[in-house]
Amino acid sequence: MSLQHLNEVIPDAPDALPTLQLRKQQFVRDAIWDAAIDLFAEKGFDETTVDDIARAAGVSRRSFFRYFASKNDLMAHAMLSYGTILTAAIDSCPPGFTLREVLQATVLEVVKASAAHPRTPKIMAILAEHPGAQAAEMSRLPEVQHQVGEAFARRCRLCGEDGLAASLLAGLTLQVAGVAVRCWYEQGQGDIPQTVDLVLGKLNHLLCTEPDSGTRRPAKSGAPARTRK
Question: HTH tetR-type domain location, by residue (predicted)?
Answer without folding.
Answer: 26-86
